[in-house]
Amino acid sequence: MRNLSGWKKSCLLAVGVAAGAVAMRAQTFVVPAAVTSYRTMPYTNLSGAQALATDPAGDLFFTRPGSGILAERPAGGGAEITLYTAPSGGGGYPKGVAANSTYAYMTDYAGHLWQVAINGGAATDLAPACNSLDGYYLGTQDVAADGLGNVYVAGNNETPLFKITSAGVCSTVTGVTLDANSHVAADAAGDLAYSTGGVLYSLPAGATSATAVSATFSPIAGLRADAAGDVFVTTGSSVVEVPYINGALSGANAFTVLNQSSVNDIAVGADGTLYATDGTNVFKNTIGNVRFAAVAVGSTSATQTVNVVFNAATTLTGFRYASGVGVSTEVANAGTGSCAATGTYAPGASCTIDLTFTPSTPGMRKDAVVLLTAAGLAGEVAVTGQGSGAALTVDPGTQIALGSGWATPAGVAVDPAGNVFATDSAKGTVSYLPAGATTATVIASGLSLPGAVAVGPDGSVYVASLGTNTIFEIPFDGTTFGTLTAVVTGLNSPSSLQFGAGGSLFVANTGAGTVLRIPNQSGTLNFTSRMTVAALTAPAGLAFDASGTLYVSDSAAGTISTVSGGVATTAVSGLSTPGTIAVDDAGSLYVVQNSGTSVTRIAYSGGSYNTNATTSLGSGFSKLVSAALDSAGNLYVADANGPSVTEIERTAGLLNLGKSNVGAATSAQSLIFSNGGDTSLTFGSPLYSAGGNTSDFTISTTATNTCANGASIASGTSCAVAASFDPTAQGVRTETLTISSNAVNASPVTGAFTGTGINLPKTTTALTITPGGTTTYGTSVTANVVVTSQGSTTTPTGTVTFLVNGVTYTTVALTNGQASATITGLPAGNDTIDATYSGDANYAASAGQTATIVVVLAPTTTTLTSSATSAVSVPPGTSITLTAKVTSAVTSSQPTGTVNFVSGGTVLAAASVNNSGIATVTTTTLPAGTYTITAVYSGDSGFGGSTSNGVQVALISQQYVVSSTPASMTVSAPGSASTTFTIAPISGYIGGVDFACSGLPANTQCAFIPATVQFTGTNLAPQTVTLTITTDTPAPSTVAWVLPFGSLLLLGAQRRRKWLSIRNSMLTALVVVASCSALLGLSGCGSSVANQTPGGTSTVTVTMTGTPNGTTTVPTSGAGNIVKTFTFSLTVK
Known about the structure:
The chain is 4% helix and 49% strand. The termini are far apart. By secondary structure, it is mainly beta. The longest helix is centred in the last third of the chain and has 25 residues, at 1060-1084. Strands 38, 63, 64, 65, 67, 69, 71 and 72 form an eight-stranded mixed sheet that branches. A seven-stranded antiparallel sheet has the order 24-25-26-1-29-34-32, with no helix packed on it. Strands 27, 28, 30, 31, 33, 35 and 36 form a seven-stranded mixed sheet that branches. The protein folds into seven domains: 47-219, TolB, C-terminal domain (Neuraminidase, 6 Propeller), CATH 2.120.10.30; 295-387, Immunoglobulins (Immunoglobulin-like); 399-650, TolB, C-terminal domain (Neuraminidase, 6 Propeller); 651-758, Immunoglobulin-like (Sandwich), CATH 2.60.40; 763-855, Immunoglobulins (Immunoglobulin-like), CATH 2.60.40; 860-955, Immunoglobulin-like (Sandwich); 959-1032 and 1093-1132, Immunoglobulin-like (Sandwich). The chain is globular, with a radius of gyration of 36 Å.
């Protein structure tokens, strides 16, 4: 396995960094007869763009040759960023583009290879590094970058392929011969592909000779490689993929992915997306998948067109609209496409399928449209969409046993249609339960320690065998399951499988510390290509949210992180061995921790995860090892020790208030109503209708955080409905509330209270808490209970349930009539703690007196750092990152909330605090000026606000400054005198500065050494200039013609890059010799009366003319120069 790295940004995980790609190709790849794709046009009006590239983070780079601009479109959206503007003279028009995680590269017609930092900075020409190899005449054409920091450039004047390392060392690539029309591509591992003479060659990393690829392309107009080494060839009318299989490009398996003419260039994203430009627009092509934007539940989307290209003669027999193993009722054929369900198509033919999406529930949907033939399938397109709306769930939910006869359940999954799949590691089986069924059917057996299981969009089932470190496929044809087949081998303790939004399969390869992606390539999983998308300590669980962001739990680090665009960021920390995870439509997380007894819900609201107020879901379990979530919000869990597989039906809540004597009321307990959708949930008025034993329960909606008639709760938030039980008769008593709301996940949604009326001796429950009174947030509180009986000496048994603010916190078994619990995470404010004894066969239940405690906000400290400070000014438009760190003495939880970045009372930006206490913003929009910025933390339910120290940030337009100038000079006549001053660049100024004097007395000359100060991308240090005043000089000045002559020589030197080195040697020497000769000539002639300098004092003006180039902004005056002056008093004696 090749472990590749090179992401754009630093990983914010406690351990590990975001990684590049790893290719392991022990399996095969079957070329699909029909390749599917979906095209959008995200960018227009690019004014002749002819080159594209992407970096590992998904940022897109392109050129605007008409204006010489290299531009970036950030992956996360936002305005176009101009990275570099090539000099207009000398043919400096852009040609090729490449990018890695740190730099973008651009070749131009003047023979330059510009390297520009993606996060901002000056441009550097790398081509001079090859001067000794190319004879100072490298005509740069195509460029490629691998994932190891190397850049490859093909010239249009030479036959070698040049390689420039990250250290700037240039060499030629052995075994490569190019022509004037050659192209080059590189993958993350350094595997190369190039074309010459119309033939494609493969040169794997480490090889010394290339191999011709056995495929014909006419013509080869461009090459690009994805991270795994697959090469995409642009021809005159199509884009052809050449898979990288078993260490080489496979021409025999080459196939067309796009029929698209007038393609100037393409780029391949890290997720396999193909970007293409026709010179004016950029087209985004997702291969093998189509994605619908969020659609309100019950509404129908706009039509999306799927393009189909046939690589073999194909006769279709129909389409299957799959929702896992079910039939999709949400994805439909609009009937306006050109593909016929029973049509016959020749190789190279194409047609379209127009699809619509009508979601019936909120959340992500992963469906598929399968193109069928008499022999099976010709191809398929994964269809992803999101249903948008409110989703009401009730906890605790009703628990329903699924299947029977389990030995050691190990994994559970549910498809979009509600069909459930579970593995049994002891029995070596995979079982299937149709939606709504409770009887399981074995669909595969003979596996060694099967664990994680996932269902593909087309219904095929994938299971990880921990005994053989292999992933197996159970194919599904729409009717029956096929034969178990090994598809991925050589893994290391694969513990989780999940399908992403694009139809790719992701694997938590726990033993190796990596997360792998098996790509959906052109509508089929390519098991020959496995790419590492994240590196952690022990990735254990995977999940995707509605936007397609990947979440990964790390059992060793105790974290859950998001992985998006190649960047991993800690979202939640401080967990105890997190394993399986799931995400609902609101973004809230569901976590199985430490093979525990319940699933932990971590709410996502207000832009952050509130780890200070989690909810435990499920009861009666002993060792949960897996959990899955359906679109209605119901949970499915596997309990290895139960052993059991259980559905927790969260659309039908059920809270057991225990046993109580007839006529004796229990303490109130609450059902929790949560909004798991992505829009606000509004309750009806009245809130509910009640049925059942309504006289036995007292319902309350008046306490803190209660649901109310007509009230609304935001996405991810919750409210409560409380009830106490006062039975009027013995036996089981139940009251059911049918909730009225705008929720669209299920109908009806109910919450029920139940209890058992008894007639047993009474008990007394005494509750005490330590500390009491007032405490600071984050302080643990110990609750102690003593249960005593009345009229009996038998010690009570059973359990005590501790409640915080009316919500169950934990249940503890009595020992010698006593129980205690340590309560953490009490929110700031007035909190109540209750304890309820369950009763047993001898005694009735009872409740203790409510204890009240006041929790005050914990103090915080906020610190601020900036990527740019006043110590080093930067130009406007520079990307500046502000990072605030909020800390507290509390260790049991982390601050949440918002940080405002403020200057002069104005909020410049705001960011949410993540679970590491960090809030970060990156901006490029601050105007010029000097700012004193503070970070103001807002506080949250547990932590008080705080304000950081001020940090100065200076944004100054690129220019130069002069310092240490003389106030006066004294010179004898005849004679000369010298002084110095300093020129320094500001904000990365690149360009030259020339000098001239005015106001000199007669027969006096001034000279400057150096005559021109040059600031380049590699030389931005201040430079000292020596000014020499010489008296008794003839007029016109001999020196006067030296400087213009030298300037002409230097101007000529700039006409071709091959003279750059010469300018630094021969031309400089000529100027110095000429200057010296002039000065020597003056002194040798003596002094005549006609040439004498008159005595006295004059005011001399030194004029500095800066000629900007590169990234320096040209002044609005249009002159293109930056002119500055200083004066001094000159006294001639």
